[in-house]
Amino acid sequence: MAWNTDLRWRLPLTCLLLQVALVVLFGVFVRYHPDADAHWADQKAAGNVSSDLDNEFYYRYPSFQDVHVMIFVGFGFLMTFLQRYGFSAVGFNFLLAAFGIQWALLMQGWFHSFQGGYILLGVENLINADFCVGSVCVAFGAVLGKVSPVQLLIMTLFQVTLFSVNEFILLNLLEVKDAGGSMTIHTFGAYFGLMVAWILQRPNLQHSKGRQSSVYHSDLFAMIGTLFLWMYWPSFNSAVSNHGDAQHRAAINTYCSLAACVLTTVAVSSAVHKKGKLDMVHIQNATLAGGVAVGTAAEMMLMPYGSLIVGFICGIVSTLGFEYLTPFLEARLRIQDTCGIHNLHALPGIIGAIVGAVTAACASADVYGKSGLVHAFDFEGDKQSWTPSMQGKFQAAGLFVSLAMALVGGAVVGVILKIPVWGQAADENCFDDAIYWEMPENTALHPEDSALKTSEP
Amino acid sequence: MAWNTDLRWRLPLTCLLLQVALVVLFGVFVRYHPDADAHWADQKAAGNVSSDLDNEFYYRYPSFQDVHVMIFVGFGFLMTFLQRYGFSAVGFNFLLAAFGIQWALLMQGWFHSFQGGYILLGVENLINADFCVGSVCVAFGAVLGKVSPVQLLIMTLFQVTLFSVNEFILLNLLEVKDAGGSMTIHTFGAYFGLMVAWILQRPNLQHSKGRQSSVYHSDLFAMIGTLFLWMYWPSFNSAVSNHGDAQHRAAINTYCSLAACVLTTVAVSSAVHKKGKLDMVHIQNATLAGGVAVGTAAEMMLMPYGSLIVGFICGIVSTLGFEYLTPFLEARLRIQDTCGIHNLHALPGIIGAIVGAVTAACASADVYGKSGLVHAFDFEGDKQSWTPSMQGKFQAAGLFVSLAMALVGGAVVGVILKIPVWGQAADENCFDDAIYWEMPENTALHPEDSALKTSEP
Amino acid sequence: MAWNTDLRWRLPLTCLLLQVALVVLFGVFVRYHPDADAHWADQKAAGNVSSDLDNEFYYRYPSFQDVHVMIFVGFGFLMTFLQRYGFSAVGFNFLLAAFGIQWALLMQGWFHSFQGGYILLGVENLINADFCVGSVCVAFGAVLGKVSPVQLLIMTLFQVTLFSVNEFILLNLLEVKDAGGSMTIHTFGAYFGLMVAWILQRPNLQHSKGRQSSVYHSDLFAMIGTLFLWMYWPSFNSAVSNHGDAQHRAAINTYCSLAACVLTTVAVSSAVHKKGKLDMVHIQNATLAGGVAVGTAAEMMLMPYGSLIVGFICGIVSTLGFEYLTPFLEARLRIQDTCGIHNLHALPGIIGAIVGAVTAACASADVYGKSGLVHAFDFEGDKQSWTPSMQGKFQAAGLFVSLAMALVGGAVVGVILKIPVWGQAADENCFDDAIYWEMPENTALHPEDSALKTSEP
């Protein structure tokens, strides 16, 4: 049966209602952080601030812009690989991220930046909002092509909420370290999305099989996304780390891990093909697994060779996942994971959480220095009595909390999205921009679909 | 009648003459700002400079690079949406911007950085030159596809000159604040370009109607431009703001405004389509209106919710403009606005100027702090006696000056460009790269033009 | 005869062996620079570090990210202009760069950052590793389409090694200045690559002539690479310059040189075409020559007009090179230079070396200031007795050393790569992704190849 995919009233009303609500909530709750407030000049006059350079802006803004590019161009274009779903990949990612960052500013603000009745916004909030939305972009990858923009907005609404709760539990209650979000962003986002995809499983997806593959230029567009994610990942993992050595170290570790990941991805991609040919799907995705997997430990003394080992392993695991696990999950568990986020975010996220727990547990004043150890893990105040091994245990606990939150939350949200009123497309119309977009004339089909025969040597 | 579009001598001579003139003028007038001069080391030795970090470079350079990307990739690719005008969109934008920034360094330098007979160049000059050229890129959008590169160079020559005069009147004589250039860049650039387009109106443009639409992949290329403009706009609006809180605040406000703008753009785009489908033209353009409209007020205490409201309104206004105003302007006023800059830059620019005037007029020591208010609006020296309401009035005056300069200037330049010696194409050859570019074999037409039938569900 | 291009075991084994070796070497030799080490907190506690802002990270990281984009997106997409070699252009560049930066961290580390038995990694090492790989990306341009990924990895292994030796000779023994690498990166990389291409010359390349041209959209993809290289080049030339004025000045000079280069490139491109049409090959490449040619002198007091003159000349030289020299080299010397790196990197690199030598020789305390001159050229310690003219002579010597190293090294490596066991393709299969990549269905040929007739006006 064909569903009603006319969004004329559903989409506009959803967008406007959400945006109006955001305006009101911002009006009631959101103000500027002192570093972004005009009173800064008075503080300087009063000598509370020695120099403009002490402004958090100069420590974090360049990294923020890199992260921003990853969310909108990185994730957006990474998903344009489908031959005729490029408008939706970039456009819906744009829509959900633009809504998500606003809602995240509020949710995370209430938990982390609430002072005197107000959420005080600074550049760090902007980064964290982008991070939070990053987990939604991850989940989007699992349902790409099978959901309507209305469903995406609702999924974003719930996922950002749950993300913030989970993040609060991990960072504030369990006091774990997760600067790059292996647990909070990737593991949570991936299993949340996979759960939603599982609930929304479509029995007759083979009807749109033809559109589930790429075409030559759509694969090149996807590489734009891949490369911007890959290049800026060092900024992603270091953006909210402590000033100075932690930011510096996080960038170096991520750089190393990602480099190693590329070589093992290529190695496995070639090894699993009968003629040793490379597969664009692997290059587009598995090369990024190294960034996911050092998300937790990047700011720790993982050591450059430690980063290389993590990247080495993840390139292999991720590529094998695309080759063997994804088909298995689809055939046996009916988990239709469009972009293979299980291989790019779920598995490397878990590996990253474990690496982080072990690295933390192995920390010592010897390696970190006396003040260094205290500074790196905030072993002061209420954590004064903590030991590295305790930190390691709590890190591990954080992983399980994230998994539980993701699976339960994803299941509930999946059920909500299953209600057939959100304008979702019928199985035979999935992966098709023409359902939700006014298409350019004569391009309902991609040129590459036309009668061009393969000329394999 | 077919015009002579052979540029073999016209284009080379124009480029070489202009570049030689620039070399000579730079030789006579341009030197380095102290922050970029090797004497810096002597100043440090003399204790005039405490640390290398005091160098303006570290406050502004990251923002400069973001702005640079907006001008060359942002505007360049935004205009590649036409099915067979991509070479010209990116290539001519590249050419006019490369010439424009050099000429702007001189024009703005004489007005703002002239000391002891020399223009002293620093990173802030580079940013301002990019800004100035931004207004030319805006105007280019109105005449895209209908002018030759020679005409563009001449338009750039005059527009940069007028821009600098107008900017001087606003910033130095009227002493208005316009960090993000709602007035100086967008309002001025848009009405200048529209005026030129009106003078150069082409009666038989329907002859090239077929090429005025997009194709699937050209719309994806355009999204590259859209997203880089959208992501880096916070840097654009904060790049030349005061150090510290002002830069910080400008980035936050722009981030908020742009996010809200995306949701209302999507809402209206869907609402105006009979089947509720989204239109790529709206997503590519109207989503940016929020950045234009906080250009003046971003560095002021607009408040995050204030930014959201501005973005909210502009997404609606801009999208409705594309849907109803552009056709009207073309049909009734014969203004053939290829990229719809009236909706993306003109209207939001005016809104931005008004928002800025009102925000300035409402400023108070309460909201800004005592020193904060003085610092934010330079209420010292010759402005010591100024009140916020005076500032507001002058802001408003700045808008009318910009409009007048743009309309008169655009009319004059339009007449100059009408002289049929600049190699412009005939109406039936507009929007066609083949006129000015050596085309790859077999691609005079886009593949998508070939016999692929639409398969709307 | 058809070669065996099955890489199933060759590529995986090569990647894994190299990566395992890197892991071991990193484990033995690589640790963190004090600025990236957790002991930083102890140093602060001990008062050895006054503020986190003194961390090298904040001086260099934004420039590093720009350089990173140039290497992976810039070079990668610049080479996607070929109609059906886009996967290989982006993918192999990704692979060789990911391997190259790791090997470069070790090679350069042993020469420049080796302390107490360890290589101490900091952000500056990351930038230098990217620079080193940049020279490999340059060389890749000469052999693009004609070598296998295994050959590229082996070429990278040797070229990075030789690069580091040559760089050590220039910077440490001859003590020349070459911040932007006109000599070490561009001249060396280009002649190394041209030598390899000459040794690997293919007699029957005309068999794959059809695939050596571009198609409409592949030229647009290439412009993404061109523009990111062009925009971020100021960061490239300033990334490792001295803090403060030198970084600032290098960015300004590069900005000016590149702008002038665009106008003269356009002028010549139009002038050499019988109908005055522009050629995308020139716009994609020659516009960048200005950045190459100020690589050495950018941080010196070249003066803005000096930069314009350099850019002016290089735009002309480079474009003429594409038009007349490349065909000559191929016809007479059998140097098959796919991307024309001789015009973009070799000639401008030599010009840059000469400009640098002259600028250094003309330096004076008058222009630089007393401390400025000493600071700019390190005329202290063992160089205390040096004069600018001496510096100039050593700069010139550096050029010849680089040329010698490149030609000899390239010849040797070329011979090694000629051994027919690396999976290289037969002449008739060059420039074809299908040899090494699993292709999307129905896209072995590009759509644009299909029966679309030209409609030149």
What does this structure look like?
- 3 copies of one chain form a homotrimer.
- The first copy, chain A, has 457 residues and is mostly helical.
- Chain A has a single domain, classed as Ammonium transporter AmtB like domains (Ammonium transporter fold, Orthogonal Bundle).
- The first copy, chain A, has 16 helices and 3 strands.
- In chain A, strands 1-3-2 form a 3-stranded mixed beta sheet.
- In chain A, a hairpin with a 2-residue loop joins strand 2 and strand 3.
- In chain A, helix 3 packs antiparallel against helix 4, helix 8 packs antiparallel against helix 9 and helix 9 packs across helix 12.
- The longest helix of chain A has 31 residues.
- The two termini of chain A are 43 Å apart.
- The C terminus of chain A is likely disordered.
- Chains A, B, C: It comes from Erinaceus europaeus (Western European hedgehog).
Shape of chain A: globular
The DSSP helix count of chain A reads 16
Strands of chain A, count: 3
Order of strands, widest sheet of chain A: 1-3-2
Would you identify the CATH H-level superfamily of chain A? Ammonium transporter AmtB like domains
Question: Element order, helices and strands of chain A?
Answer: HEHHHEEHHHHHHHHHHHH
Q: Using CB atoms under 8 Å apart, which protein chain pair has the greatest interface? A: A-C, 85 and 87 residues
The overall pLDDT average of chain A reads: 94
CATH class of chain A: Mainly Alpha
CATH architecture label of chain A: Orthogonal Bundle
First-to-last CA distance of chain A: 43 Å
How does the helix and strand content of chain A classify structurally?
mainly alpha
The gyration radius over C-alpha positions of chain A equals 22 Å
- Looking at how many chains there are and whether they match, the oligomeric state comes to homotrimer
Strand content of chain A: under 5%
| The CATH topology of chain A | Ammonium transporter fold
Percent of residues in helices of chain A comes to 55-70%
